[in-house]
């Protein structure tokens, strides 16, 4: 199977209509049409075998996750998705792999109304690179730089299960079979919080998605906003499975785990009920986990309000 047959068979969906895409696959460039009064938002993420996913991952789940991690960036900015581009390097043109990968990819794409508008394929070590494009009303994009002293700090969903699954894969921890299935699902099938991100426009003052660990990702918000924060460790939302592990492992998974793809965001106290309503309207759990302060730095506090000695380093592709 050659390159163009591969594209036609697995990725070209013909003239399927998509908002914002005038012309997709089949020309040298895609033709996109922005909505008047809206701004384009663009993000790129690369997934490399052995670095971001295991060689044993189910291809359908890999297709899902490859798009999900990019859609999560749009969610963090309050954007609605419009188009994406796929650059795919493959060791060989394996029809079974491609069928599963495309199925997972397009199931998530269709669920969120985003179209594949182009990309590239080549032979090489397995590498998936996706660029997503979305849009938001002008002046309503959620950024990392808007947090203000006094804001409440919120997190969507639960944290830590993906890192717990990774520790099982690494052989440093073990779980009963049914529990491993659940945390592995969190690791391999993250759900981008697009509806929540859009619902938070005009409510949240800043936002970021948790891809490299809560401590590190929140640190990016604090640096961009010129503020500090306190996080209440006992308030951090976690599954019953993670809550049943020892405290040190919980700290590692909750604060430095990564791969959660939940949103951490800030909002003024007067928007407290609006945040809760946004969560309820989108069917997303939201939890207040701390506050923003003027004093720089990030402290994690125990139930008595005392700082805890915890690891806050985030994942770094060139150090981890």
UniProtKB/TrEMBL annotation:
GO terms for molecular function: thiamine-phosphate kinase activity. It catalyses: thiamine phosphate + ATP = thiamine diphosphate + ADP. Mg(2+) 5 binds at residue 212. Pathway: Cofactor biosynthesis; thiamine diphosphate biosynthesis; thiamine diphosphate from thiamine phosphate: step 1/1. Substrate binds at residues 52, 259, 315. Residues 26-135 form the PurM-like N-terminal domain. It is an enzyme of class 2 (transferase). Mg(2+) 4 binds at residues 28, 43, 73. Residues 148-300 form the PurM-like C-terminal domain. Reaction mechanism of ThiL seems to utilize a direct, inline transfer of the gamma-phosphate of ATP to TMP rather than a phosphorylated enzyme intermediate. HAMAP family: TMP_kinase (MF_02128). Catalyzes the ATP-dependent phosphorylation of thiamine-monophosphate (TMP) to form thiamine-pyrophosphate (TPP), the active form of vitamin B1. This is Thiamine-monophosphate kinase.
